[in-house]
Amino acid sequence: MWEYNEKVKKYFTDPPNVGRVEDADGVGEAGSLACGDALTLSFKLDDDGKIADARFQTFGCASAIASSAALTEMLKGKSVEEAEKLTNKDIAEFLGGLPQEKMHCSVMGEQALQAAIRNYRGQEPLPQEEGEVVCQCFGVTDQEIRRVALENNLHTREEITNYTKAGGGCESCHGAIEDILAELWETEGAGQAPQVSIPSARPKKLTNIQKMKLIEETLEREVRPALKADGGDIEFIDLEGDKVMVSLRGTCSSCAASQATLGQFVQAKLREFVSEDLVVQEVKP
Amino acid sequence: MSQRIVYLDNNATTQVAPEVVAAMMPFFGNLYGNPSSMHTFGGQVGAHLREARAKVAALLGADPGEIIFTSCGTESDNTAIISALKSQPGKRHVVTTRVEHPAVLSLGQDLERQGYEVTFLPVDRQGNLDLDQAAEAIREDTAVVSVMWANNETGVVFPVAELAELAKAKGALFHTDAVQAVGKIPINLRETSIDMLSLSGHKLHAPKGVGVLYVRKGTPFVPYIIGGHQEHGRRAGTENVPYIVGIGVAAELAMANLEDENTRVRALRDRLEDGLLKMPATMVNGDRERRLPNTSSISFEYVEGESILLGLSDLGICASSGSACTSGSLEPSHVLRAMGVPFTAAHGSIRFSFSIYNTDEDVDLVLDNMAPIIERLREISPFWAKAQEAQAGGAGS
Questions:
Q1: How far lies A273's CA from each of A88, A202, A214, A223, in Å?
Q2: For residue A32, what are the domain limits?
Q3: B303, closest residue in chain A (CA to CA)
Q4: Which residues on chain A place their C-beta less than 8 Å from a C-beta of chain B?
Q5: Are B269 and B244 in a shared domain?
Q6: Is the ipTM of this complex over 0.90?
Q7: 3-state DSSP assignment of residue B156
Q8: What would the pLDDT profile of B231-273 be if each residue is shown by its tens digit?
């Protein structure tokens, strides 16, 4: 049983701002059905450029719903520039604190807010966090781990799992997360910017034909069975340089939010078995 | 304010039967002697242990000499599997399933790290094992096959009698974790080739802290806890006399209540399930035919289990969930994942598990309140809106 404070309980039991703003100026999504929590955030500005209305739709546990509702309350009256500065810490503080194991719910709020602001500015949604996928189970990249660690001053693997979910599944990436933290805080101490690059583990060069063949084989062996179990499928459409165009079919394609995760899953598999440089892009059939 | 508790989480633990509490009390009072003592004061306690052993043996269709009292189901599971490996040092292979309780599953993973080979049998979408696949997995060097009698999350019952025969044919020992099955379905070990069986007191109205390991007469056995001569040298440590007396009475009650469990309790479970299934996007997890009479795992798609449980808890209704947020591991239940239950449903799964203490009023309270809880959460969920749109679009085209 999680220990939620009264404010969290209140925001779960009777959340304000449920739904979607009509004619929204910005809409952003974070999380996925597969991961167990997801949030769609929308907001509308008034004539003075302040956020007049913000609404949310959330699939998730009590703290995910409370964090989303809290975020919408915090946004009202703020300019986009002010809103942009909000972090997961602000959300957790607004609620009077969240259980450590639930901090990832506040991180999801921050991610949805950033996505909504990008949408408002006419920028493409980030297909995923930049960097290498470290946690395959939840599709968390090294860059996201570094960013959340720096923002929240996190030093242990357990904290990273609580805040990002990374390492909360099969646990096989615990060593990699610990390496990232060791490197991050060592470099920080030396006063340098955190290093982001990870040396490529796959130096061999492939011709385009070899690459395409290997991609098709990897999709068939590593990806398709998992998708088919849930009634979905994937089709390899084209390869442009290192850009792999795929189309998702069946139940997977009807669930927009799970695509981010799915894309990461496909990309992680292709990077593992084909080439570190591949980028997966989804095209509509 | 005291709220009425509607307890529908009996696969997690059960209310201690008042008869059990009453029977235990003298052993916290005047009858505090040690059954191993030479004096009459201590020795008289031994008679109560014998009585308890006979009652447990009767429930299982076993002989009293085949019953070892332990501290819990997990200890029984660990003892059985490790004994099988120690008594057959040449055999380094274990067969179990992907849907075992952590008491067996985590032990299996640990044995792998120690260099043993462990086969984890898969289950199908209904949670059933494939007997042919099991037969193929058992080899000449298989020391033990350990398959639960019934699954704690779905209630699906496995064909342990057939599996025990398959193990016997290959010269392997067969152990079953029957923690959820005992007291809910008839068990007669004399009619099977099962070598070892684990059960837990607190799942059948005895207190937490007492369990049983059945070891068939003639089965090689190496004790796990070394020390004194208690339990015929098979489990050292001074007997937990009050709790053993308690589990004896609980076993007696379980036998008497088996009929009620399989008629009235089953009907309560079915009425709840049928009522809940009237809601859209709701489904039962697990084979509805081959199932314990008291268990229902039911998924409410597009909403998350912890949120449902909190809504129920506010009404005094106790249940559990296979969702990630309640599993402690950030991933939904290993049982539902092994069955291939889609994420939309695994995260929104709720397990209701009944006991003889449940009533029609309990079922009514859940049926009256579940729909508003689910509807409220679906209103908040982005996926519900999308699913509705997709359905409306599909119906229109």
A1: 35, 9, 8, 12
A2: 6-120
A3: A59
A4: 2, 12-13, 15, 18, 20, 29, 33-40, 56-62, 64-65, 137-138, 161, 165, 168-169, 229-231, 251, 254-258
A5: no
A6: no
A7: strand
A8: 999 999 999 999 999 999 999 999 999 999 999 999 999 999 9
